[in-house]
Specification:
The complex is a heterodimer.
Chain A lengths: L6 H29 L3 H4 L14 H9 L3 H32 L5 H10 L9 H10 L6 H5 L6 H11 L4 H9 L4 H12 L1 H17 L2 H6 L8 H7 L8 H32 L5
Chain B lengths: L6 H33 L2 E4 L3 E5 L3 H8 L1 H34 L4 H12 L2 H11 L6 H8 L11 H29 L3 H10 L3 H29 L3 H7 L12 H10 L4 H30 L1
Antiparallel strand pairs in B: 1-2
Classes of the chains: A mainly alpha, B mainly alpha.
Chain lengths: ~280, ~290
């Protein structure tokens, strides 16, 4: 697009965008501010904007006294971490097989994998739950990770990418006597590293935000992931909002930090994964 | 490519990679999908296990159920309102950001909610929407307006959920449209500039027609994503005052049918209905992608 040269129009756009940014940022700022206010202060009318006294008591409580909060964090890291590592490595290896090795049935298999891409998780979660129960995965880490170990999207993406790697590079390595494993690890992997990173970011974010599967497959609080655990601080009647906001604030802080540093990368991954999300 | 690897080497590698992949893939995708379809024709309860073949009776039970029709209606309203707003606002932001210099900070801030997860943002919105102490109602009453029961009735809950969801995803569609706008050659705009065409005309005669495939794609994507809505609804209505404000959507109804009423057969039938609707839309999406590539 051509950048507008009309000063007045430019100013209006800037003002409008700045105002929109307030709308997009404010809930997060409000979350942070509420989390640092005392219980009496958040019920005051008119509400205070900045906390009268910065109170980090709720943070300390969640981190050191709450039985579960750190556990939720750890569970999320374990589940999203293992899920991401396993599915990303599998996607790379399977992508390599589909892109660079000829084998019988490869087209059919690729087609089957691709065709499940359009089938949303929500439509087959009930039999999946049933299978998990039979495999005794209910309320276990294995159960939480189970549905994300293989990613149709990841396999598709890596196959697409690896097809762009010239065959000559593999042939040249072959002449030098490299084995298939060596070629995979020392040639294919480094060449695809940016795609791998984008896929890993995407997988991790998806796994971290997953809600309905943990809701179904976990039974006791010590197995809850963060997303599920946060709902427990909402309580039924008297909601301690400053506690709830502290819990939420700590849950989003890692994402905020990652976003601050890898903004371009994350936005790019969004465009690339557009067809999926 | 030519077969540069020896047969043995290839076989070992394929076995090491593809066998576990295929087994896992069968267990987590193919078998559950097939079971959903097959067992939707069987009596199947969480308590008693799989029973007799009942034909389409599960489907009839679901289709006749008022809870289903209510959930379907709510889901459609949410999906179309939510998708419409997300796409329109996404396009508007993309246009504005594309037309000025030094816009990357704006872009980052509008995009920020996309990377956050639903539960924390729903929680802060629930707090903002709070009837007594919520900031939004305070500001409304300070301006002399009446307080709004944001989460107090079904229709208001629906409105609030749309607000939160659109707020969360609009940055995503902005990025998609930004990518689309960059593909429109500058020469078109320069020609329009030389001709002295008014801005509105440039938008409707150049930008919009050239963005048509990507707009269609974004619309279908947004509708599909909103049809699968669950987390926001769960987070924003859980713990609310019961029946009066309980908002049902399709995935929620499937979840309830399966895990509250233990009717897995009916829940499977409902899953197939959801799947049918989504696949129909995916076909439209493929047509859109096909058009884009032409």
């Amino acid at each position: 697009m051509i950048k507008s040269r009309n000063r007045a129009a430019n100013l209006i756009i800037h003002v409008f965008l700045a105002a929109s940014c307030v709308v997009f940022l404010f809930p997060i700022v409000w979350m942070a501010l509420t989390s640092m206010k005392g219980n009496a202060e958040i019920l005051k009318s008119p509400p205070t904007f900045l906390p009268e006294k910065f109170d980090f008591g709720k943070y300390a409580y969640l981190l050191f006294s709450d039985k579960f909060y750190c556990r939720f964090f750890m569970n999320s890291i374990i589940v999203a971490g293992i899920g991401t590592v396993v599915s990303t490595i599998d996607s790379m290896a399977a992508g390599f097989c589909f892109a660079k090795i000829r084998f019988r049935g490869s087209r059919l298999l690729f087609f089957v994998i691709l065709s499940t891409l359009m089938i949303p998780f929500e439509s087959y979660m009930i039999p999946l739950f049933n299978i998990s129960v039979k495999l005794k995965l209910l309320n276990t880490y294995a159960g939480l990770i189970f549905p994300i170990i293989v990613s149709s999207f990841g396999i598709f993406l890596m196959t697409q990418y690896m097809q762009t790697i010239p065959d000559e590079m593999i042939e040249a390595a072959r002449i030098d006597g490299a084995s298939i494993w060596r070629i995979f690890f020392t040639i294919i992997t480094p060449l695809s590293i940016s795609s791998i990173m984008l896929l890993a970011i995407f997988q991790f974010m998806t796994a971290w935000g997953d809600f309905i599967w943990p809701l179904i497959i976990t039974k006791s609080q010590n197995m809850y992931v963060m997303e599920l655990g946060l709902t427990k601080y909402r309580g039924q009647f008297d909601i301690d909002y400053s506690l709830l906001m502290s819990a939420c604030m700590m849950a989003i802080t890692p994402v905020l930090i990652v976003f601050l540093f890898f903004r371009r990368y994350i936005i790019e991954s969004t465009v690339m994964t557009g067809i999926k999300a | 490519m030519k077969d540069v690897f020896t047969k043995k080497e290839r076989t070992v590698f394929l076995f090491a990679i593809m066998v576990p992949t295929v087994i896992a893939f069968l267990a987590i995708r193919v078998v559950p999908i097939a079971q959903t379809l097959v067992l939707s024709f069987f009596k199947w309860s969480l308590v008693d296990g799989v029973g007799n073949f009942v034909g389409v009776r599960n489907y009839l039970a679901v289709l006749r159920d008022e809870l289903f029709s209510e959930a379907l209606l709510n889901t459609f309203i949410l999906a179309f309102a939510g998708a419409f707003l997300s796409v329109i606002l996404g396009l508007a932001f993309a246009m504005m950001i594309g037309s000025i210099k030094r816009s990357s900070l704006y872009e980052a801030i509008v995009f920020l909610p996309v990377v956050l997860t639903y539960i924390p943002i729903c929680m802060v919105w629930v707090w903002l929407f709070n009837w007594d102490n919520g900031l939004i109602n305070y500001l409304l009453s300070a301006l002399g307006l009446s307080r709004v029961p944001w989460l107090g009735s079904k229709s208001m809950t629906m409105t609030s959920i749309i607000i939160v969801s659109v707020w969360k995803v609009v940055g995503y569609y902005m990025i998609i449209f930004s990518a689309g706008l960059k593909t429109i050659p500058n020469t078109y705009y320069e020609a329009a500039l030389v001709d002295g065409a008014p801005q509105a005309k440039v938008f409707f005669k150049i930008t919009l027609p050239l963005l048509k495939p990507i707009t269609l794609l974004a619309c279908v994507m947004a509708v599909i994503n909103f049809l699968k809505i669950f987390t926001q609804v769960y987070a924003m209505t859980q713990g609310s005052a019961g029946e009066a404000t309980h908002l049902s959507v399709l995935v929620y109804d499937i979840y309830n049918r399966a895990f509250m009423y233990f009717k897995l057969g009916e829940a499977s039938a409902e899953s197939i209905v959801l799947l049918g609707i989504l696949l129909l839309l995916t076909l439209v999406q493929f047509k859109a992608i096909g058009e884009k590539n032409d």
